[in-house]
Amino acid sequence: MTRQVFISSAAIKPYPRWIAAFPKLVFCASVRDYLKHANSVADLCWLDGAGMSREQCIGFVKLLLQANRSVVVLSNTPCDEEAQTVLFAGARGYCHAQAMPEQLQSVASVVESGNYWMPPTLVEKLVLTAVQLNVPTSPTKADGLTVLTEREREVAQHIGRGASNREIAQALSITERTVKSHLTTIFEKLDLRDRVQLALMINGLPLH
Question: Against a cut of 0.70, is the pTM above it?
């Protein structure tokens, strides 16, 4: 079973939301202290970036990667630029240090399954880039859409192009309320959390 290890040199003790998400978490004051006593490669390490420069944070991410640990970076002031930097350095996830317990649990689930977790705004940028580069439709994606009705597929394709509910409603001559209803059904049929995941699926990008 994966241990949730929170590493923070800025916090005296784990934040209440961390404990609420993972009651049995392990807390360490520094990466080096953790590595001195670590003996489980199944650990998921949550690195609190508070109190350190971006360069220091990247250095610690790389130290943990060398020890074959999966890393999620936490930030009190998350931004897309920092997210890109730490993800490119090898982190598997990036989120707010004060995220709700349910979100922290979702992050852990995604990362433990071998995928990446990143801010929705960054995902949207990747989706838009895929649209601009005309990323081809993958067979897996096309097969998945067969469970949708023709109108639901139309709504999904518009989401894949980055359209808002209002723009979809105007394009299909339906109400925004109907668009929302279609999206709810689409999410249920495709087992997706939100429109960001739907956009990723439509554009053949890995779900976060």
Answer: no
Structure confidence by residue, pLDDT tens digits, 182-206: 999 999 999 887 777 787 788 776 5
Span 157-191, pLDDT tens digits? 888 877 778 889 999 999 999 999 999 999 999 98
CATH of 124-202, one of 3.40.50.720, 3.20.20.70, 3.40.50.2300, 3.40.50.10470: 3.40.50.2300
Domain boundaries 4-117, corresponding CATH code: 3.40.50.2300
Smallest Cα–Cα separation from 97: which of 79, 75, 115, 80? 75
